[in-house]
Amino acid sequence: MEEAGVIKGYQANLDRRMLGLDIIAFVHIRFSTHADHAPDDFEAVIAQLPEVLSCHKITGDADYVLQVLAEDLDSYGDFIEQVLRRQVGIASIQSSLALREVKTSSRIAIPKSIKD
Predict the structure, then answer these.
(1) CA spacing 20 to 30 A to 42: which of 52, 62, 85, 101?
(2) DSSP state of 110
(3) pLDDT band at residue 111, thresholds of 50, 70 and 90?
(4) Spatial distance between the Cα atoms of 29 and 54, rounded to a whole number of angstroms
């Protein structure tokens, strides 16, 4: 699987709370226009941010959804003000804070068609 490129790397699974990261936020970003390079520039910035666990371009009311970790509400607020609000072209930012983590995983089940 390594030679075929299916395995992209290895990682340690860390306890975010033991690292002081108590906030998980799901952030929906909507752009005012897609005619310029603002979304591409946004993606380049987001790809470099350690606070952002994942970023997906999505369908629906928003253009992107981010999963963001923060130490507390103050640091999350700083992230919104100092990073996201400074990105050109963003029309709206909507946050949903996780109340409880029911399941989290980065494991992917191997489809039966590949196992056979």
Answers:
(1) 101
(2) P
(3) confident
(4) 13
**What CA–CA distance (Å, rounded) separates 84 from 107?**
29
What is the C-alpha separation between 110 and 114, in angstroms, rounded? 7
pLDDT of 39: 93
Query: By C-alpha distance, which of 27, 39, 31 is closest to 92?
Result: 31
Q: CB–CB of 27/63 below 8 Å?
A: no
- Predicted TM-score (pTM) of the model is 0.88
Quick check: 64 and 9 in contact, CB under 8 A? no
Rounded distance, CA 100 to CA 24, Å? 9
| Residue 63, C-beta contacts closer than 8 angstroms, at least 6 positions apart | 29, 30, 31, 34, 39, 57
Residue 116 has pLDDT above 70, yes or no: no
| 49 Cα distance to chain centroid | 9
Q: What is the pLDDT of residues 50-76, one digit of tens each?
A: 999 999 999 999 999 999 999 999 999
Domain definitions of the chain by residue range: 17-97
